[in-house]
Amino acid sequence: MPDFSRPYNAKDHEERIYAKWLESGYFTPENLPNADTREPFTIIMPPPNVTGNLHIGHALTVTIEDIIVRYQRMLGKKTLWIPGTDHASIATETKFLKEKKISRNDYINKRDEFIELVNDFALKNQEVILKQLRAMGSSLDWSRLAFTLDEKRKQAVYMAFRRMYDAGLIYHGEYLVNWDTKGQTTVSDDEIEYETTQGKLYTFKYSKDFPIPIATTRPETKLGDVAVAVHPSGKWKKYIGEKIEIENFAGVKLSIAIIGDEMVDPEFGTGAVGITPAHSKIDGEIARRHHLPTKQVINEYGKIIKTGTDWDGKTGIKEVREEVVEWLKKEKLLEKEEIIEHNIAKAQRSGGIIEILPKRHQFFVNVNKPIPERDGKTLKDIMRAAVTSEKIKIIPERFEKIYFNWIDNLRDWNISRQVWYGHKIPAWYKEEEIIVSEKSPGNGWNEINDTFDTWFSSGLWTFSTLGWPNKTEDLQLYHPTDILETGYDIIFFWVARMILMTGFLLDDIPFKTIYLHGLVRDAKGRKMSKSLGNSIDPLIMIDTYGTDALRMGLIVGNPPGNDLALSDDKVKAYKHFANKIWNAARFVLANTEGLDLEKETRLEREDAKIQEQTKALVAEVTQDMEQFHLYLAAEKLYHYFWHTFADIIIEEAKPRLRSENAEEKISAQRMLYEALILQLKLLHPFMPFVTEAVWEQIPQKNKTLLMVELWPHS
C-alpha cells in the first residue's frame, strides 16, 4: 500500500485500485454482498464504434454512467452495467480502407478474406477501447462483454429480421434510396448531413414551343424528366393531360406528360415542377400516383448514364451541369439564373455526395403498417406511446418535442447496406421472388450480398446483451433496463430505434429513463476537431491530471442536454481537489488515531451542529442524485469539502483537538472522523480512485471496499 504520508499522486493508485476492484468481483452483480436480496438496477453502455480510440465525448458518457452505477450499488441495488462495442459496419469499413489505402475492389473475389482483415482491425481497436474504459474507472461487468457482431448478437439479429419479415413489417423490392457515391452504399435519412452553400437556380423551358417554364438547381437531372406537375386549379391547369414530345433536350429525347397534382404549390416558383422519378423521392411518389415511367440517368458514382449522348460517363454535378446550362443558353431556353442558398446532401460517415437512385433488392421496415398482435398499432404508434404514456421519461424534457417531431416525419427505414463488414442479410432471390433463409434454398437462387444497417443490430442492444432470443434469467431479471444515458445527437439513430425494436419484439420498453448529455467543446465553445487542433485525448488528460480530476471536470457545470466547454485549467483544478481530499483525510486520521469507534460519544453542541449540517448535505446530495442532477451534487460536494470542511471545520477544530479537556477533544475527533467518512461515501461515485485510496487507511473493523459501502442516510 502506498505511503499515506506522501502527497497524492494518481499514478500511484489508479491501476492498483482498479485491479483490486476487479479481484473483488463486485462489478458482477451476483458477487455483491447479499446479492439475492438486492433489487436489480440495470444500465447498458452505448457501445463505442470499433473505429479507433475513445474521444472525450465517450469519456463523458462513461463518467455519467459510472457515477449513476456506483451510486445505485451503494444504495444496495444489484447493479448490472453491461459493456460492449459496436462493429459499426460503414464507419469501420470506411476507416479500414482509408488507413490501409486500399479499395474494396482489390478483394472483389475475396470477400471472406476482406471481412477477416476488417474484423482483425476492429478487434485490435476494441482492445484499445476496453483499456481506455478501465482507465476511466468504469465499474462494468466484464463477464458480460458483448460485441454487436458476435455469434450471440448474430442470432438475435436474424431472429428479429425473421419475426419482423413474417409479420409483414419488412418488405423488399426496388425502391428509391439515399446513395452514398463515395461509400458506395445506401444510407438512412438520419445519416445524411446537409451543407448549406451558394448555388444557382435555373429557370428554363425544355424547348421553344414548350408552354410551361420550370426551375431547378440540378439541370443535369432533367435529362431523366418524364413529366411536369402543376396544381389542378393553378394557372397551368389548361395544359393538364397533354403529352409533349421533346426531340432534342441537350441531345436527349424526352416525352413529357403534364399532370395535375395537389402537392404542387401554385404560388411557388413558376407553379410547375419537372418530375424526375428516378432521382427524387417526392417525384417518385408523384410518378407512382400517376403511373409514370422511371428513367435513370445517374449511376452509383454520380455519372450520367443511358442518354446515348456524349454526356454518358461524365460526372453529373461537376461536368454535365455546366454543359447543359451552356446548351440552354445557346438555345435561348434559359429564362433566369439566380444565386441562392441551398443544401447539399452528404453522407455523414464518408462525406460523399448523396444521390437518390432506384436500387433493387432493398429491405425496408414499414413504420406505418398496423400490427394485429400489437392491437393494430404501427411502429410509429409504439414509439410515440412509449413516451406519451410516461413509461419512458426523457431528461431534459425539452427533447420530447424533438422526439415526437422526428416520429411524425419518419419514413420507412431502409435496412440494406452495400458494405461487406456486418451481419449479412439472410435472404435469397430468384427474379422477384424472395426467401428468407441462412442457407441456400438450392439451384437458381441468388444470394443477397447486402448487410444490415448497423442500427438494426444495435437497436436490439438492451435485450440482445441479456440473452434474447433465449428466455434467460438475465432477461427476466434485468429488462427493461433502468436508464439509457447517451448523447442527444443519437436520439434518432439509436434511442428511437431501440424503442421501436423492443416495442415490437418484446411488447415492452427498453428503458425507463433516457438521460441525454450534450457535446464536449473546447474552452472557447468550439466543436472539437482535428483540423482545429483542439481535440482532447482523455488518456493524456488522465496521465497528466488523474482520472478523478477528468471525471469532475466533465461533470461539474454540465447539466443534461447542454454542451460543455472543457479546458485543461478546469481539469487541473480538480487534480488539486483530489490532493486536498488526501491531505485533509490524512490530517483527520492522524488526529483521530486511537479513537474508540465502538464507544458512543456525546458530541459537544458545536460538533453536534456540524453533524446536523453534514446530514443535511447528505439529504441534499441524495435528492440531486435521485433527480439526476449529478452536476449539482458534484459541485456541492466539491465546495463543501474544500471551503467548509477543510477550510473552516478542520481549522476551527484544531484548538479542540489540542484541548486538555478529554470530552471536548473526543467530540471534535468524532465529528471530524464521521464527517470525513460521510463525504468519502458521497464523493465516491464521482471520484472513485482517491476516495477508495483514502478508504484503505480508514481504521475500521471488518472493512470492505468503499465501492460496496452503503450510501449514507440523512
From TrEMBL:
Classification via Gene3D superfamilies: HUPs, Isoleucyl-tRNA Synthetase, Domain 1
Protein known as: Valine--tRNA ligase
Keywords: Aminoacyl-tRNA synthetase, ATP-binding, Coiled coil, Cytoplasm, Ligase, Nucleotide-binding, Protein biosynthesis
Domain Aminoacyl-tRNA synthetase class Ia: 17-436, 445-566
Matching Pfam families: Anticodon_1, tRNA-synt_1
Recorded catalytic activity of this chain's protein: tRNA(Val) + L-valine + ATP = L-valyl-tRNA(Val) + AMP + diphosphate
Domain Methionyl/Valyl/Leucyl/Isoleucyl-tRNA synthetase anticodon-binding intervals: 608-712
InterPro entries for this protein: aa-tRNA-synth_I_CS, aa-tRNA-synth_Ia, Anticodon_Ia_Val, M/V/L/I-tRNA-synth_anticd-bd, Rossmann-like_a/b/a_fold, tRNAsynth_Ia_anticodon-bd, Val/Leu/Ile-tRNA-synth_edit, Valyl-tRNA_ligase
Record's keyword annotation contains Glycoprotein: no
Family per similarity comment: Belongs to the class-I aminoacyl-tRNA synthetase family.
Any one GO molecular-function label of the UniProt entry: ATP binding
Gene Ontology annotations for the cellular component aspect, listed alphabetically: cytosol
Class of this enzyme: ligase
Amino-acid biosynthesis listed as a keyword: no
Domain of life: Bacteria
GO BP annotation list: valyl-tRNA aminoacylation
Coiled coil (residue ranges): 317-350
EC number(s) reported in the record: 6.1.1.9
